[in-house]
Amino acid sequence: MSAAKFFLVAGLLASGAYASPIQARTPYAVKDSHFVPSKWRQVAAAPSTHNIDLRIAVKQNQFTDLEKHLYEVSDPDHSRYGQHLSELDVKKLVQPSDDSLALVHEWLADNGIEAGDLSYSSSKDWIKVSLPVHRIESLLDTKYNVYRHEDGSETVRAPEWSLPLHLHEHIDTIQPTNSFFRSSPKAVSLEVNKFGGSYSQDVTYHQDPNVTAICTPRGVTPLCMRTLYETIDYIPQVSGKNKMSLVNYLGETNNRSDTYLFLEKFRPEAKETAYEFQFDVINNGSTSQAKVTSRIDIEGNLDVQTMLGFSYPVPLTAYTVGGSPDFIPSNGTTTNTNEPYLDWLQHILAQSDDTIPQVVSTSYDDEEQTVPASYAKRVCEDLAQLGARGVSVFYSSGDSGVGGSGSCVTNNGSNAKRFIPEFPSTCPYITSVGATMDFKPEVVAYHASGYASGGGFSDLFPRPAYQDKAVKAYLKGLGDRDAAYFNASGRAYPDIAGQGSYFSTVWNGTDTLVSGTSASTPLIAALVALVNDALLAGGKPTLGFLNPWLYKKGYRAFTDITSGSAVGCSEIGDGKGFPAVEGWDPVTGFGTPKFRDIIHLLGVHGYWNHTGGWS
Ligand SMILES: *[C@@H]1O[C@H](CO)[C@@H](O)[C@H](O)[C@H]1NC(C)=O
Ligand SMILES: *[C@@H]1O[C@H](CO)[C@@H](O)[C@H](O)[C@H]1NC(C)=O
Ligand SMILES: *[C@@H]1O[C@H](CO)[C@@H](O)[C@H](O)[C@H]1NC(C)=O
Ligand SMILES: *[C@@H]1O[C@H](CO)[C@@H](O)[C@H](O)[C@H]1NC(C)=O
Ligand SMILES: *[C@@H]1O[C@H](CO)[C@@H](O)[C@H](O)[C@H]1NC(C)=O
Ligand SMILES: *[C@@H]1O[C@H](CO)[C@@H](O)[C@H](O)[C@H]1NC(C)=O
Ligand SMILES: *[C@@H]1O[C@H](CO)[C@@H](O)[C@H](O)[C@H]1NC(C)=O
Ligand SMILES: *[C@@H]1O[C@H](CO)[C@@H](O)[C@H](O)[C@H]1NC(C)=O
C-alpha cells in the first residue's frame, strides 16, 4: 500500500493528529448485541488463554451490484438470463475497498496484531486471526463466557461486542462473538433393520409408469423416485461437464462400503460410483470409513445414497468440513475452529469456474433466532455469490413444521410465543426444500413422532420481490390465522418440496429407514443436476439460482401439494401451523417436480429415452 493511499484515507476521515499515517482513532461503541437463545445459559467465565479463530467480515464494496447481477442472470425474462458471472467478476464486486482494509489493518496493528498473523478469504472480505480470549476481549471491548446448551454441549461466546466508531461502517460482523448458530443434520426417524420398497431391477420403461405398483410409503427407493418424478427414461448426456455436491458437517461423512451395498441393491449400474465419488476435505473434515461406534453417518449416508441412486452418472463431490461450533472449554481445548459454515463458504467461493459444482445440497440448519442479524445477513450475501456464479444452492427447510412444540418462544427476553423459522432457509438467495410423503397424491410429510416438513417466514430477511405474488395470495387465503406469531412481510419458505419419508438407506451395513427434509433436499438437488445435464446437452447454461425462474415460470412444472400442514408449536393456535393449500404455501412451496415438464418448459426440446429417440 502506497503512502499516498494512506493520506487519502486520513483525508477521508478528516481526523486530527498526524502522529501516525492514519489517524483513525475513535471511541469504542457497541457494534452488535444478541440475546442468548433460550436453550443456552451462562455457566462460567471463559478461560483467558483459550484460543479463538476470529473472523472479521470486512464490508463488501459493491454487494448491491452483485445482487443486481444475481437477479438479472436468474430472471428468465431478462436478456442476461443464464449469463452467470465468473469467479473473477464476483471477486471484483465483493472485495472490500482499500480504505476499509487499511482502516481495519491499522486498528489491528494498534492492538499488536501484525500482518503476518492474518489470513484472508480469496476476495479479502474475510480476515482470520487466531487469538487468546483475553486479547480478543480487549480488541472488542467485551467479555467472553462459557455457555451451556440444554443438550450439555458448551461454547464460548460474547453476546455484546464493540468497535471503534469509525470502523462500524467498514466491518459487517466479527465471529465467533454473539452467534449461537450451530446447525444440525435434519435426518430423523431412524429405524434400523427395516427396509421396504421395491428392490426390483426388472424395470420396464412404461410410457406411464405405475407409481402405485413401484412405490411404497415405508421404504422409498431410487426406482420409485425416478418413476414418480419422471427421470426414469432420461439418459444423462454430458455428465463430465456437470457436477453435483453435498456438504457434511459435525463429524458426519459418507461411507463407501454402505453406499456400495445400497447401490448394488437399488441402482446396480451405479455401484462403482460408491468408490469413485470425490471427497473435498476442508479443515480436516472426516472421511473416516472405520467401524461406527455411534449414530454418526446416518445423515452422510442418506445424502450420498440419495444423490448417487437418483442421478447416476452425474459425478458427485462430497465436501466434508471439520470443526464444530461447540466445544468443551474445561477439557483444555486450546484451539477451536468455531465456524465450519464459513470454512465451507470460503472454500467453495475460492473454487475456479471449471471446478465449482453446479448444484449443492445441504441438510443442516438451525433456528434463525440463534443467529445475529449481522451475521445471518453476511452469510446470506456470501451465498448470493454462488447463485451469481450459476450454482444452485439447496437447504432443507427443517423437520419441525413451524417450530418444535414446547419451545416456540422468542429469545429477546420477552419470551413471547412465536413460530421459529430456520436459517439458512430464510435467506432469499437460496432454494429451500420441504418434504412430502405418500403417493398419488403426495401429502405434507408428517409423522406422529413430531416430524413435519418445516416452513414459515423470516424475522430477519424481508420478502424478496420474486415471491410477492405467490406469498400475498397465500396470506390472503390465510386471513388472520396465527397472525401474531410470524412476520408476514418476511422471506417465506420453503420454495419447493420432494419426498422425505422413510427412505431406504444402508447404514452400518444394515438396511435402515431414514426420514427428513434431509432426504428431500439431496433428492431435489440431484434432480436439478439432471435438468442441468439436459440444459448443457441442449447448448444452454445451467439453472443457477432457481427462485426467480421458479416463481415466474417454473412452478407450472411442479405438482401442487394441497393436503397437510406444517404441524408444530402445539402451544400456538391449533398446533397445526400453516396449512398446505392450492398454489404456493409455506409447507411444500410449489410442490414436487415433474422432470419432463421442467425440461420442456426450459425449452430443451427432446431428451434421450430408452428406445433411443427424441421425445
Ligand atoms: C397399478 O398397480 C396397482 C398395484 O399393483 C394395480 O392395482 C393397478 O391396477 C395398476 N394400475 C395400472 C393402471 O396399471
Ligand atoms: C484430523 O482429524 C483426525 C481424526 O479426527 C485427528 O486424528 C487429527 O489429529 C486431526 N488433524 C489435525 C491437524 O487436526
Ligand atoms: C462403513 O461401512 C462398514 C461396512 O458396511 C461398516 O462396518 C462401518 O461401520 C461403516 N462405517 C461408518 C463410519 O459408517
Ligand atoms: C453396527 O452393527 C453391528 C452389527 O453388525 C452392531 O453390533 C453394532 O452395535 C452397530 N453399531 C451401532 C452404532 O449401532
Ligand atoms: C471432557 O468432555 C467429555 C465429553 O463431553 C466429558 O464427558 C468429560 O467429563 C470432560 N472432561 C473434563 C475433564 O472436563
Ligand atoms: C420480542 O419479540 C416479540 C415477537 O416478535 C415482540 O412482540 C416483542 O416486542 C419483542 N420484545 C422485545 C423486548 O424486543
Ligand atoms: C417484519 O419484517 C420486516 C422485513 O424484514 C421488518 O422490516 C419489520 O420490522 C418486521 N416487523 C416486526 C414487527 O418485526
Ligand atoms: C421414445 O422416443 C420415441 C421417438 O420420439 C417415441 O416414439 C417413444 O414413444 C418414446 N418412448 C418413451 C417411453 O417415451
From TrEMBL:
Transmembrane segments: none annotated. The active site is at 299 (charge relay system), 303 (charge relay system), 518 (charge relay system). SUPFAM superfamilies: Protease propeptides/inhibitors, Subtilisin-like. One of its GO terms (cellular component) is extracellular region. Its EC number is 3.4.14.10. It catalyses: Release of an N-terminal tripeptide from a polypeptide. Keywords: Calcium, Glycoprotein, Hydrolase, Metal-binding, Protease, Secreted, Serine protease, Signal, Virulence, Zymogen. It is found in: Secreted, Extracellular space. It is an enzyme of class 3 (hydrolase). Binds 1 Ca(2+) ion per subunit. Residues 219-605 form the Peptidase S53 domain. InterPro entries: Peptidase_S8/S53_dom, Peptidase_S8/S53_dom_sf, Peptidase_S8_Ser-AS, S53_propep, Sedolisin_dom, Tripeptidyl-peptidase_I. Ca(2+) binds at residues 560-561, 583, 585. GO terms for biological process: proteolysis. One of its GO terms (molecular function) is metal ion binding. Secreted tripeptidyl-peptidase which degrades proteins at acidic pHs and is involved in virulence. This is tripeptidyl-peptidase II. It comes from Aureobasidium pullulans EXF-150.
